[in-house]
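sry for the spam today, last one i promise. C-alpha coordinates for design, 295 residues
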Protein backbone atom coordinates (compact mmCIF):
# COMPACT_ATOMS: atom_id res chain seq x y z
CA UNK A 1 0.00 0.00 0.00
CA UNK A 2 2.86 2.34 0.89
CA UNK A 3 4.58 1.55 -2.41
CA UNK A 4 1.39 2.36 -4.34
CA UNK A 5 1.06 5.67 -2.49
CA UNK A 6 4.68 6.47 -3.23
CA UNK A 7 4.22 5.66 -6.92
CA UNK A 8 1.08 7.80 -7.05
CA UNK A 9 2.94 10.70 -5.43
CA UNK A 10 5.81 10.37 -7.92
CA UNK A 11 3.38 10.23 -10.84
CA UNK A 12 1.53 13.32 -9.68
CA UNK A 13 4.81 15.13 -9.07
CA UNK A 14 5.96 14.32 -12.59
CA UNK A 15 2.66 15.52 -14.03
CA UNK A 16 2.94 18.76 -12.07
CA UNK A 17 6.52 19.29 -13.24
CA UNK A 18 5.70 18.58 -16.87
CA UNK A 19 2.65 20.82 -16.82
CA UNK A 20 4.42 23.79 -15.28
CA UNK A 21 7.44 23.55 -17.56
CA UNK A 22 5.37 22.92 -20.68
CA UNK A 23 3.41 26.10 -20.17
CA UNK A 24 6.32 28.45 -19.43
CA UNK A 25 9.32 28.57 -21.73
CA UNK A 26 12.77 30.07 -21.40
CA UNK A 27 14.67 31.94 -24.11
CA UNK A 28 16.63 28.77 -24.89
CA UNK A 29 13.40 26.76 -25.23
CA UNK A 30 11.98 29.33 -27.65
CA UNK A 31 15.10 29.28 -29.83
CA UNK A 32 15.28 25.46 -29.74
CA UNK A 33 11.58 25.08 -30.62
CA UNK A 34 11.86 27.79 -33.29
CA UNK A 35 8.65 29.49 -32.14
CA UNK A 36 7.57 32.30 -29.85
CA UNK A 37 3.99 32.74 -28.61
CA UNK A 38 3.04 36.40 -28.25
CA UNK A 39 -0.26 37.50 -26.72
CA UNK A 40 -2.20 40.41 -28.27
CA UNK A 41 -5.72 41.68 -27.70
CA UNK A 42 -8.51 40.61 -30.05
CA UNK A 43 -10.55 43.13 -32.01
CA UNK A 44 -8.53 46.10 -30.74
CA UNK A 45 -8.01 48.36 -33.73
CA UNK A 46 -5.44 49.76 -34.59
CA UNK A 47 -3.30 47.60 -32.30
CA UNK A 48 -4.37 44.04 -33.10
CA UNK A 49 -7.30 42.92 -35.25
CA UNK A 50 -8.28 40.77 -38.22
CA UNK A 51 -9.38 42.44 -41.45
CA UNK A 52 -10.74 40.16 -44.21
CA UNK A 53 -8.85 37.23 -42.73
CA UNK A 54 -5.57 39.15 -42.45
CA UNK A 55 -3.97 39.80 -39.05
CA UNK A 56 -3.12 43.48 -38.74
CA UNK A 57 -2.22 46.21 -36.29
CA UNK A 58 0.65 47.96 -34.55
CA UNK A 59 1.09 45.16 -32.00
CA UNK A 60 0.78 42.44 -34.64
CA UNK A 61 3.52 44.07 -36.74
CA UNK A 62 5.66 44.51 -33.63
CA UNK A 63 5.17 40.84 -32.72
CA UNK A 64 6.28 39.81 -36.23
CA UNK A 65 9.34 42.06 -35.96
CA UNK A 66 10.34 40.57 -32.60
CA UNK A 67 9.98 37.00 -33.88
CA UNK A 68 11.95 37.79 -37.02
CA UNK A 69 14.79 39.42 -35.10
CA UNK A 70 14.91 36.45 -32.71
CA UNK A 71 15.06 34.18 -35.75
CA UNK A 72 11.96 32.17 -34.82
CA UNK A 73 8.42 31.67 -36.08
CA UNK A 74 5.55 33.64 -34.56
CA UNK A 75 2.34 32.24 -33.12
CA UNK A 76 -0.12 34.87 -31.95
CA UNK A 77 -2.25 34.23 -28.89
CA UNK A 78 -5.42 36.30 -29.24
CA UNK A 79 -6.67 37.57 -25.89
CA UNK A 80 -10.14 38.65 -24.87
CA UNK A 81 -9.77 41.42 -22.32
CA UNK A 82 -10.86 40.48 -18.80
CA UNK A 83 -11.97 42.97 -16.12
CA UNK A 84 -8.49 44.47 -15.72
CA UNK A 85 -4.82 44.07 -16.65
CA UNK A 86 -4.15 41.99 -13.52
CA UNK A 87 -6.54 39.32 -14.79
CA UNK A 88 -5.03 39.41 -18.28
CA UNK A 89 -1.50 38.95 -16.93
CA UNK A 90 -2.63 36.02 -14.79
CA UNK A 91 -4.59 34.37 -17.62
CA UNK A 92 -1.98 34.78 -20.34
CA UNK A 93 1.47 35.01 -18.75
CA UNK A 94 1.97 33.23 -15.43
CA UNK A 95 -0.97 30.95 -14.62
CA UNK A 96 -3.38 30.50 -17.50
CA UNK A 97 -7.15 30.65 -17.58
CA UNK A 98 -8.93 27.93 -15.60
CA UNK A 99 -10.44 26.65 -18.87
CA UNK A 100 -7.05 26.57 -20.62
CA UNK A 101 -3.90 26.49 -18.50
CA UNK A 102 -1.54 27.41 -21.35
CA UNK A 103 0.19 30.80 -21.38
CA UNK A 104 2.13 32.95 -23.84
CA UNK A 105 5.88 33.62 -23.81
CA UNK A 106 5.38 37.36 -24.18
CA UNK A 107 2.42 39.72 -23.77
CA UNK A 108 2.13 43.11 -25.47
CA UNK A 109 0.31 46.31 -24.43
CA UNK A 110 1.01 46.10 -20.70
CA UNK A 111 1.22 49.17 -18.42
CA UNK A 112 4.84 50.13 -17.76
CA UNK A 113 4.65 51.87 -14.43
CA UNK A 114 6.71 51.39 -11.27
CA UNK A 115 3.78 51.91 -8.91
CA UNK A 116 1.68 49.43 -10.88
CA UNK A 117 4.44 46.80 -10.95
CA UNK A 118 4.92 47.16 -7.16
CA UNK A 119 1.20 47.08 -6.37
CA UNK A 120 0.32 45.05 -3.26
CA UNK A 121 -2.87 43.26 -2.28
CA UNK A 122 -4.87 43.43 0.95
CA UNK A 123 -2.38 41.26 2.85
CA UNK A 124 0.73 43.03 1.57
CA UNK A 125 1.71 40.52 -1.13
CA UNK A 126 2.96 41.78 -4.50
CA UNK A 127 0.10 41.47 -6.99
CA UNK A 128 2.53 41.01 -9.88
CA UNK A 129 5.17 38.88 -8.17
CA UNK A 130 5.05 36.33 -11.02
CA UNK A 131 5.44 38.90 -13.81
CA UNK A 132 8.23 41.09 -15.15
CA UNK A 133 7.00 44.20 -16.98
CA UNK A 134 9.56 45.84 -19.24
CA UNK A 135 10.40 47.42 -22.63
CA UNK A 136 8.05 50.40 -22.91
CA UNK A 137 7.57 50.97 -26.63
CA UNK A 138 5.31 54.03 -26.73
CA UNK A 139 3.66 56.64 -24.55
CA UNK A 140 -0.14 56.75 -24.57
CA UNK A 141 -2.47 59.61 -23.67
CA UNK A 142 -6.00 60.92 -24.15
CA UNK A 143 -7.16 63.00 -27.11
CA UNK A 144 -10.29 64.71 -28.42
CA UNK A 145 -11.27 64.85 -32.10
CA UNK A 146 -14.07 67.25 -33.05
CA UNK A 147 -16.28 68.34 -35.93
CA UNK A 148 -15.02 71.78 -36.94
CA UNK A 149 -18.38 72.58 -38.55
CA UNK A 150 -20.02 72.25 -35.12
CA UNK A 151 -17.26 73.57 -32.85
CA UNK A 152 -14.85 76.38 -33.75
CA UNK A 153 -12.13 75.18 -31.38
CA UNK A 154 -11.57 73.17 -28.21
CA UNK A 155 -9.39 75.33 -25.98
CA UNK A 156 -10.75 73.70 -22.85
CA UNK A 157 -12.73 70.56 -22.03
CA UNK A 158 -15.42 72.81 -20.53
CA UNK A 159 -16.81 73.38 -24.04
CA UNK A 160 -18.54 70.03 -23.63
CA UNK A 161 -20.93 71.54 -21.16
CA UNK A 162 -22.68 72.69 -24.33
CA UNK A 163 -21.70 70.15 -27.03
CA UNK A 164 -22.27 66.40 -27.15
CA UNK A 165 -19.15 64.23 -27.07
CA UNK A 166 -18.91 60.48 -27.68
CA UNK A 167 -16.98 58.10 -25.42
CA UNK A 168 -16.51 54.35 -25.15
CA UNK A 169 -18.75 52.83 -22.48
CA UNK A 170 -17.07 52.02 -19.14
CA UNK A 171 -13.92 53.89 -20.15
CA UNK A 172 -11.93 56.46 -18.19
CA UNK A 173 -13.16 59.28 -20.51
CA UNK A 174 -16.74 58.29 -19.70
CA UNK A 175 -16.12 58.51 -15.93
CA UNK A 176 -14.18 61.73 -16.35
CA UNK A 177 -16.78 63.52 -18.48
CA UNK A 178 -19.62 62.48 -16.21
CA UNK A 179 -17.92 63.65 -13.02
CA UNK A 180 -15.55 66.56 -13.77
CA UNK A 181 -16.70 70.16 -13.36
CA UNK A 182 -19.32 69.07 -10.81
CA UNK A 183 -20.94 66.81 -13.42
CA UNK A 184 -21.84 69.69 -15.76
CA UNK A 185 -20.80 67.62 -18.81
CA UNK A 186 -22.68 64.50 -17.76
CA UNK A 187 -25.70 64.97 -20.02
CA UNK A 188 -23.50 65.66 -23.05
CA UNK A 189 -21.31 62.55 -22.69
CA UNK A 190 -22.83 59.97 -25.04
CA UNK A 191 -21.76 56.35 -24.60
CA UNK A 192 -20.96 53.91 -27.42
CA UNK A 193 -19.81 50.27 -27.42
CA UNK A 194 -16.52 51.21 -29.12
CA UNK A 195 -14.48 54.19 -30.27
CA UNK A 196 -15.15 53.28 -33.90
CA UNK A 197 -18.90 53.57 -33.30
CA UNK A 198 -18.40 56.89 -31.51
CA UNK A 199 -16.38 58.14 -34.50
CA UNK A 200 -19.15 57.03 -36.87
CA UNK A 201 -21.66 58.90 -34.70
CA UNK A 202 -19.54 62.04 -35.01
CA UNK A 203 -19.36 61.79 -38.79
CA UNK A 204 -23.14 61.37 -38.84
CA UNK A 205 -23.50 64.51 -36.66
CA UNK A 206 -25.00 62.59 -33.73
CA UNK A 207 -22.22 64.01 -31.52
CA UNK A 208 -19.85 66.91 -32.07
CA UNK A 209 -16.66 65.26 -30.80
CA UNK A 210 -15.12 62.04 -29.48
CA UNK A 211 -12.64 61.45 -26.65
CA UNK A 212 -10.43 58.37 -26.45
CA UNK A 213 -6.88 57.03 -26.62
CA UNK A 214 -4.60 59.18 -28.76
CA UNK A 215 -3.56 56.06 -30.69
CA UNK A 216 -7.12 55.18 -31.62
CA UNK A 217 -8.29 58.75 -32.23
CA UNK A 218 -5.35 59.53 -34.54
CA UNK A 219 -5.85 56.24 -36.39
CA UNK A 220 -9.48 56.97 -37.16
CA UNK A 221 -8.66 60.56 -38.06
CA UNK A 222 -6.51 59.10 -40.85
CA UNK A 223 -9.72 57.92 -42.50
CA UNK A 224 -11.33 61.39 -42.30
CA UNK A 225 -10.70 64.95 -43.44
CA UNK A 226 -8.25 66.55 -40.99
CA UNK A 227 -9.72 69.93 -41.81
CA UNK A 228 -13.27 68.90 -40.94
CA UNK A 229 -12.21 66.67 -38.04
CA UNK A 230 -9.10 68.13 -36.35
CA UNK A 231 -7.48 66.99 -33.11
CA UNK A 232 -7.89 69.22 -30.06
CA UNK A 233 -4.86 70.37 -28.05
CA UNK A 234 -6.58 70.85 -24.72
CA UNK A 235 -5.51 69.33 -21.42
CA UNK A 236 -7.80 67.45 -19.03
CA UNK A 237 -7.94 69.16 -15.60
CA UNK A 238 -8.68 66.97 -12.57
CA UNK A 239 -8.10 63.80 -14.59
CA UNK A 240 -4.98 62.58 -12.80
CA UNK A 241 -2.50 60.68 -14.97
CA UNK A 242 -2.85 62.00 -18.50
CA UNK A 243 -0.12 59.98 -20.18
CA UNK A 244 1.51 56.64 -19.46
CA UNK A 245 3.95 54.18 -21.01
CA UNK A 246 2.91 50.93 -22.67
CA UNK A 247 5.28 47.97 -22.57
CA UNK A 248 5.44 44.19 -22.42
CA UNK A 249 5.44 41.36 -19.90
CA UNK A 250 7.00 37.94 -19.41
CA UNK A 251 6.94 35.46 -16.56
CA UNK A 252 9.38 36.55 -13.85
CA UNK A 253 11.62 33.48 -14.31
CA UNK A 254 12.61 34.27 -17.88
CA UNK A 255 14.65 37.47 -17.73
CA UNK A 256 16.96 36.32 -20.54
CA UNK A 257 14.02 36.51 -22.93
CA UNK A 258 13.23 39.94 -21.53
CA UNK A 259 16.79 41.17 -22.15
CA UNK A 260 16.71 39.95 -25.76
CA UNK A 261 13.31 41.53 -26.50
CA UNK A 262 14.22 44.78 -24.71
CA UNK A 263 17.30 45.13 -26.93
CA UNK A 264 15.14 44.60 -30.02
CA UNK A 265 12.62 47.22 -28.89
CA UNK A 266 15.30 49.79 -28.05
CA UNK A 267 16.97 49.31 -31.42
CA UNK A 268 13.64 49.65 -33.25
CA UNK A 269 12.99 52.91 -31.43
CA UNK A 270 16.46 54.37 -32.07
CA UNK A 271 16.48 53.46 -35.75
CA UNK A 272 12.98 54.81 -36.38
CA UNK A 273 11.55 51.38 -37.20
CA UNK A 274 9.09 51.61 -34.32
CA UNK A 275 7.81 55.01 -35.45
CA UNK A 276 7.36 53.60 -38.95
CA UNK A 277 5.13 50.80 -37.62
CA UNK A 278 2.87 53.36 -35.93
CA UNK A 279 2.88 55.61 -39.02
CA UNK A 280 1.69 52.68 -41.15
CA UNK A 281 -1.59 52.76 -39.18
CA UNK A 282 -1.83 56.58 -38.98
CA UNK A 283 -1.11 56.49 -35.25
CA UNK A 284 0.61 59.36 -33.44
CA UNK A 285 3.80 57.97 -31.91
CA UNK A 286 5.57 59.29 -28.82
CA UNK A 287 8.88 57.87 -27.60
CA UNK A 288 8.89 56.91 -23.89
CA UNK A 289 11.10 59.06 -21.66
CA UNK A 290 13.23 56.01 -20.83
CA UNK A 291 14.91 56.22 -24.22
CA UNK A 292 15.09 60.01 -24.34
CA UNK A 293 17.19 60.14 -21.17
CA UNK A 294 19.53 57.40 -22.40
CA UNK A 295 20.45 59.23 -25.60
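last one done:
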Amino acid sequence: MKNNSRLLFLALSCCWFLCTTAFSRSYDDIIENNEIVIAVYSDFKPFSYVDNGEEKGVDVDLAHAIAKKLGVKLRLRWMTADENSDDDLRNHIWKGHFLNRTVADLMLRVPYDRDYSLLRDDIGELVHQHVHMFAPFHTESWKVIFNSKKIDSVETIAVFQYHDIGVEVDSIPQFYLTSAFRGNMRDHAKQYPSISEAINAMTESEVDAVMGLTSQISHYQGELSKINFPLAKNAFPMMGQQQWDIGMAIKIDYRQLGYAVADIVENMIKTGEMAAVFAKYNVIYKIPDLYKTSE
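Residues 176 and 272 are 34 Å apart (CA to CA). ok im logging off now
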